[in-house]
Design goal:
Layout (H helix, E strand, L loop, with lengths): L2 H11 L12 E6 L6 E7 L5 E9 L16 H12 L3 E7 L5 E7 L4 E6 L8 H16 L7 E2 L8 E6 L4 E10 L4 E2 L7 H17 L38 H16 L8 E4 L8 E5 L5 E6 L6 E4 H12 L9 H10 L6 H28 L4 H4 L3 H14 L1 H14 L4
Antiparallel strand pairs: 1-2, 2-3, 4-5, 5-6, 6-9, 7-9, 8-9, 10-12, 11-14, 12-13
Helix pairs in contact: 4-6, 4-7, 5-8, 6-7, 6-8, 7-11, 8-10
């Protein structure tokens, strides 16, 4: 049997629906998530050009062996790694929370403070993407945005690819040492509406500043296959089984259905550029200032830096800033007013905002619960948004698009930057 027929037989046996044409092919299993779950086959020609992504039904964890891509270094391993790469003597080391990477808070004998960030082995397979993230952080820092910057190793490298055995065999992880930014997260702080205005404004400043970022590798930021992109809200359908028996599943299905009919068709016409992608209440650090207000002292985690729609940045910011706020309905207008002091949204963008905010809440709730089935040891952090997110999604859905928009847009129009 020749190779073309062999591949055709294989794809037919797997039940794939359509292959537009067959060259001599090779394929790679492409997980749609960090571990086993819904998968697809990425078909390529001999020089690696992508032909087509065909997504299959969910695959049982028993069928595809789960690989834990998270780094799980001990404090001793992290200490030895830091000393070897950066030549510093530590007087203190402790763990910091993380979704699927590993972060350590470090203090040196000179009393300098740093964060050692070890990326999961899945994302570490794309070092070029992390180089662009590192470049963006430095670029923003030089222009007044309080982002972290990366400290070079003793050999002058901004990141080091390290093969480490965390108990499941050796995997390669990207290691970076970053400056420590003082303060508390928004989630821990009683922020005011004026603070939220400033956060919305900062989000817009970040994205407009990134329009000037120059690199030959910006194409790695394309968001087509990024599951957290608000372009990919329909992917939630593949994970909805984790919500079986939960009344919230009905609301999530309805949100996704409306998104598909009302938002998805217009995405091609929405303005796009490089966005931070994850301005949430854990990634914005603030310090107290006068009159009970706060100043932003840090913007963290550029791992979701991507080329995507600008209105997505507004939606993500509103969704997460509502999470721990005692008056969540007051958040949207303040964030929107801050954003529009820099970049005014079009009518089409504004009309999409409600479903985009709800879509992000759905993503957070569904993917968080899915990840708990894979990483039960990190349940508390993975379900950070579960309680407040459930209440918010239910409340906003019950109020409806028209009433929520009236509140947001009226508040934004009346907002005064004091």
């Amino acid at each position: 049997m020749d190779r073309e027929k062999l591949w055709w037989g294989l794809f037919s046996d797997l039940g794939l629906m359509r292959i537009s044409y067959l060259l001599p092919l090779r394929f790679a299993l492409h997980p749609g998530f960090y571990t086993s779950g819904p998968v697809g086959f990425l078909c390529c020609d001999e020089i690696g050009n992508r032909i087509e992504m065909v997504r299959t039904a969910a695959v049982s964890p028993d069928t595809v062996p789960a690989v834990d891509h998270r780094p799980m270094l001990t404090l001793q391993q992290a200490t030895q790694l830091t000393v070897r790469l950066y030549g510093v003597t530590l007087t203190e080391i402790s763990t910091l929370p993380s979704y699927n990477d590993q972060n350590f808070f470090l203090v040196t004998k000179e009393d300098n403070k740093y964060v050692l960030k070890i990326m999961n082995s899945k994302e570490s397979m794309n070092p070029t993407r992390m180089e662009v993230q590192t470049l963006a952080m430095s670029f923003l820092h030089q222009r007044g945005v309080p982002s972290q910057i990366v400290v070079p190793t003793t050999t002058g490298k901004l990141m080091s690819m390290e093969e480490i055995d965390c108990g499941q065999g050796a995997q390669t992880y990207c290691v970076r040492l970053m400056t420590y930014l003082p303060g508390k997260t928004v989630a821990e702080s009683p922020v005011t509406v004026q603070d939220l205005y400033q956060i919305g404004k900062l989000a817009a400043v970040i994205d407009t500043t990134l329009k000037q970022l120059v690199s030959p590798n910006l194409d790695v930021l394309q968001s087509n296959e990024e599951m957290w992109s608000l372009s990919n809200i329909p992917l939630i359908d593949d994970y909805l089984s984790v919500m079986d028996g939960d009344p919230l599943q009905k609301v999530i299905k309805a949100v996704v259905k409306q998104y598909k009919s009302l938002v998805a068709p217009r995405i091609v016409s929405l303005r796009k550029g490089i966005i931070h992608g994850d301005i949430n209440d854990q990634n914005i650090i603030v310090t107290p200032s006068a009159n009970g207000r706060h100043e932003v002292s840090g913007v963290l985690d550029f791992s979701l830096l991507m080329i995507d729609c600008y209105v997505f940045e507004v939606a993500v910011t509103i969704a997460y800033m509502m999470m721990e706020n005692p008056s969540p309905l007051d958040v949207g207008g303040a964030v929107l007013a801050g954003w529009e002091s820099v970049m005014v949204l079009s009518e089409e963008e504004k009309d999409s905002l409600f479903l985009l905010v709800l879509g992000r809440l759905c993503q957070s709730l569904v993917y968080g619960r899915y990840n708990v089935t894979k990483y039960p040891d990190n349940k508390e952090y993975l379900l950070t948004t579960a309680k407040s997110g459930t209440l918010l999604l239910t409340k906003l859905w019950e109020m409806g698009k028209k009433n929520v928009e009236r509140k947001w847009f009226t508040d934004a129009a009346m907002f005064i930057d004091k």
